[in-house]
């Protein structure tokens, strides 16, 4: 018989019913000399907790069944060797915390019956157990788990008051959270449950430990107006219920309610402006009048508790200087792109505020939110780069920043509608989005700029390598001189669209549609083709002596009419043969944010090498794009640029120039410098802007979120990182007392 009992407790199967478990435990209780071997007690206790967690409060004969389980648990903790008692109690508390902190679990209030093991412990011992659970949590992820557990414990104390130790455990749990300075967790969860907690004071089953918890919460929230808003609708009813009971117990509860509620009102009135004060007094006149019927005491110990609101750690504000990304070993090609995208405020705000629960988006959101509220000016992007680096990119090798930009946008689009819940970042990312056909201008080759020697490779969406010309496009004659390698203009149909979906957020802000018209000079037939793009790639015409080119000039050159003759004649579907033609390019749909890639290189056919062009260019702060409707040009203003610094295609360094609040900054990895408005016009010969970012003038610049507006997970991560950084700084200051203050600050913050 003992064997069967032992097998049930150790089975690890949590689906059995409480009645079955209780029947076996009852027989164990009838054999007081038998206790499972010490090394198996932990597993037995886990199984009991899981069985209780799945038991409904409506279970028949629940009180009798629980008394059997409680008797068994109490016998265990009072009978085993004192050296093992702590482990048994810790195992039960750890299992309760594990299942209540899991957002996917559905835990019954009956689980609190297992807290009977706390009956023999004093308050300090219970607090030590709660402290041990909370301190072992990872700082960066603890917030959500702590919220889940605290919510369950509040729910239990309102719904289930049969376990006397529940209040003792919950108060210890709250005090451990206070020690760990998790005041944001305490305030948020307590406010959510305050109405129900307050009403539980009038329950006939309320006990001393339960009311201690409720008044501790009320007193700790007394400086928060929202707290009074939560209890105000129930104050009159509670006063009547408690006043109608002549017991000394109810009289004390009534006095505590009056003292705390009046103090809440005083705080609300003291902190309100004149207009708000009048509104507050009018709104709660009935409650205020009813409370005035009772005399408040001046010796209420609850009012000596320090309110949580006044103990919230101050949020670290962003420093005067901007934050930059640490170079993790030739990662400037990624740093520069992320800085430019961060400067695209509509994009970075959406990443942080709207995509915190989506794979890869959430990782980028954590990175960007950290840039918004840092205490250090050096941000480590390791966590994001670990999962976002293109798999084809070699470790510690540099690549073209436009290739990374294309890959990153495709990655985000691919996971825009997926959930991060249970997502395994150890798996390779799967790119599922359709890459728009690029607008390629000038060269048959697209070779990346690099910080280290690499073989020339074709770009992804930033360009396509094509050694032979398309039969329906101009033949490329090299890197300069030719306007573009246009999309496929010829088709059996005179009008052809080559468009992918524009439903994604990325394409809604960066995507546009190019319209290419070809007019046959022989039959006067016109064909049109439409192509999606996310970046506009511009090549340079043959330079003319004494003429300085500009970005606007390159756009005009790209969109100007082009005569197709000789070897570049047009294959006309109406004439059924090659014919002279005129081709014109304009924009049917212009992007909100225009990304311009300047093809600063030339392919030398004789030497079979790529050469970097270092031509003098005027970088227009404002440019216009022609549309298919005359007089409806779209105007853009520059807000960022990625600059390549180096004299050769395969070597060099990327950094970003970006504008924020009408001030320009250079972001050279983690070094951020304020610069003049005309910085681009005075670069050295080897420093050439490679990617330019423009915002359409009719698109309003959005405001970045405040700290309180951030998703809770990002708030917790920011505070955890900033707190860890501040502690590290303090440790350095303690261990290096002889350094001057200026040197310490210089070593930490620069």
Helix segment count? 23
Strand content: 5-15%
The residue fraction in helices comes out at 40-55%
- Class based on secondary structure composition and strand pairing: alpha+beta
Strand segment count = 21
- Gyration radius from CA atoms, angstroms: 35 Å
How many angstroms separate the termini? 72 Å
The outline comes out as elongated
- Biggest sheet architecture: 8 strands, mixed
Average pLDDT, all residues: 80
In short:
With 750 residues, the protein is α+β, with helices and mostly antiparallel strands. The chain contains 23 helices and 21 strands.
Q: What features would you describe in this structure?
A:
The structure is a single chain. The protein has 23 helices and 21 strands. It is α+β, with helices and mostly antiparallel strands.
Q: What topology does this entry show?
A:
Elements: H1 2-10, H2 18-29, H3 38-53, H4 62-79, H5 82-100, H6 123-135, H7 142-159, H8 165-179, H9 183-199, H10 208-220, H11 225-243, H12 248-271, H13 274-283, H14 285-292, E1 324-325, H15 332-343, H16 345-354, H17 361-372, E2 378-379, H18 382-388, H19 401-414, E3 495-498, H20 505-510, E4 512-520, E5 526-533, E6 536-538, E7 549-550, H21 551-559, E8 562-564, E9 570-572, E10 577-579, E11 581-589, E12 593-598, E13 601-604, E14 609-612, E15 617-618, E16 622-625, E17 634-645, E18 653-660, E19 663-668, E20 671-675, E21 687-696, H22 712-735, H23 741-749
Parallel strand pairs: 1-2, 3-5, 6-12, 7-15
Antiparallel strand pairs: 4-5, 4-11, 8-11, 9-10, 12-21, 13-14, 16-17, 17-18, 17-21, 18-19, 19-20
Helix pairs in contact: 1-2, 2-4, 3-5, 4-5, 5-7, 6-8, 7-8, 7-9, 8-10, 9-10, 9-11, 10-12, 11-12, 15-19, 16-17, 17-22
């Amino acid at each position: 018989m003992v064997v069967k009992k032992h097998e049930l407790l150790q089975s690890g199967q949590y689906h059995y019913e409480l009645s079955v478990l209780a029947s076996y435990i009852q027989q164990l209780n009838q054999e007081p000399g038998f206790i499972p071997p010490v090394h198996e007690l932990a597993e037995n206790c886990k199984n009991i907790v899981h069985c209780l967690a799945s038991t409904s409060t409506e279970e028949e004969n629940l009180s009798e069944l629980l008394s059997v389980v409680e008797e068994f648990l109490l016998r265990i903790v009072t009978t085993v060797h004192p050296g093992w008692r702590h482990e048994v109690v810790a195992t039960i508390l750890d299992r309760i915390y594990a299942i209540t902190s899991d957002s996917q679990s559905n835990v019954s209030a009956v689980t609190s019956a297992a807290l009977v093991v706390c009956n023999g412990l004093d308050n300090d011992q219970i607090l030590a157990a709660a402290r041990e659970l909370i301190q072992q949590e990872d700082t960066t992820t603890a917030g959500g788990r702590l919220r889940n557990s605290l919510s369950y414990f509040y729910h239990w104390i309102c719904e289930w008051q049969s376990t006397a130790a529940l209040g003792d455990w919950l108060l210890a749990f709250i005090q451990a959270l206070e020690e760990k300075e998790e005041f944001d967790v305490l305030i948020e969860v307590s406010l959510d449950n305050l109405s129900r907690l307050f009403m539980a004071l009038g329950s006939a089953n309320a006990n001393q430990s339960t009311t201690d918890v409720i008044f501790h919460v009320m007193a700790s929230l007394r400086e928060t107006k929202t707290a009074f808003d939560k209890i105000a609708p129930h104050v009159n009813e509670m006063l009547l219920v408690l006043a109608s009971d002549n017991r000394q117990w109810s009289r004390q509860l009534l006095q505590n309610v009056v003292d705390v509620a009046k103090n809440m009102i005083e705080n609300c009135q003291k902190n309100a402006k004149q207009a708000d004060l009048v509104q507050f007094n009018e709104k709660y006149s009935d409650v205020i009048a009813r409370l005035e019927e009772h005399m408040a005491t001046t010796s209420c110990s609850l009012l000596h508790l320090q309110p949580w609101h006044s103990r919230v750690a101050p949020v670290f504000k962003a420093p005067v200087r901007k934050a930059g990304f640490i170079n993790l070993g030739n990662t400037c090609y990624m740093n520069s792109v992320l800085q430019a995208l961060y400067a695209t405020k509509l994009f970075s705000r959406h990443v942080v505020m709207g995509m915190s629960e989506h794979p890869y988006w959430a990782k980028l959101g954590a990175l960007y939110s950290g840039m918004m509220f840092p205490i250090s000016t050096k941000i480590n992007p390791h966590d994001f780069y670990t999962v976002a680096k293109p798999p084809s990119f070699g470790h510690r090798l540099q690549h073209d920043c436009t290739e990374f930009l294309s890959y990153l946008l495709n990655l985000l689009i691919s996971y825009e509608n997926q959930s991060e819940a249970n997502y395994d970042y150890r798996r390779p990312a799967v790119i599922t989005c359709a890459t728009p056909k690029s607008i390629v201008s000038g060269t048959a080759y697209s070779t990346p700029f690099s910080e280290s020697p690499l073989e020339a490779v074709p770009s992804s969406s930033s360009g396509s390598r094509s050694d032979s010309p398309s039969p329906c496009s101009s033949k490329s004659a090299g890197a300069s001189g030719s306007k573009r390698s246009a999309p496929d203009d010829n088709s059996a149909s005179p009008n052809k669209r080559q468009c992918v979906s524009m439903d994604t957020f990325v394409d809604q802000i960066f995507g546009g549609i190019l319209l290419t018209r070809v007019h046959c000079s022989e039959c006067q037939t016109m064909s049109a083709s439409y192509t999606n793009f996310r970046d506009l790639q511009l090549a340079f015409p043959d330079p003319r002596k004494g003429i300085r080119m500009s970005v606007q000039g390159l756009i005009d050159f790209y969109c100007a009419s082009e005569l197709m003759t000789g070897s570049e004649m047009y294959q006309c579907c109406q004439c059924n043969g090659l014919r002279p033609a005129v081709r014109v390019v304009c924009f049917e749909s212009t992007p909100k944010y225009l990304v311009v890639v300047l093809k600063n290189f030339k392919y030398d056919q004789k030497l079979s090498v790529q050469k970097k062009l270092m031509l003098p260019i005027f970088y227009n702060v404002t440019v216009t794009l022609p549309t298919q409707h005359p007089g409806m040009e779209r105007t853009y203003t520059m807000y960022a640029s990625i600059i390549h610094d180096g004299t050769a295609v395969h070597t060099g360094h990327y950094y970003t120039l970006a504008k924020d609040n009408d001030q320009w900054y250079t972001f050279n990895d983690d070094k951020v410098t304020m610069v003049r408005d005309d910085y681009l016009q005075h670069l050295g010969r080897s420093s050439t802007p490679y990617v330019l970012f423009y915002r359409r003038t009719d698109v309003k610049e959005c405001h970045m979120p405040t700290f309180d507006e951030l998703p809770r997970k990002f708030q917790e991560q920011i505070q955890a990182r900033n707190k860890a950084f501040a502690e590290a700084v303090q440790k350095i200051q303690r261990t290096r007392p002889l350094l001057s203050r200026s040197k310490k600050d210089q070593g930490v913050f620069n």
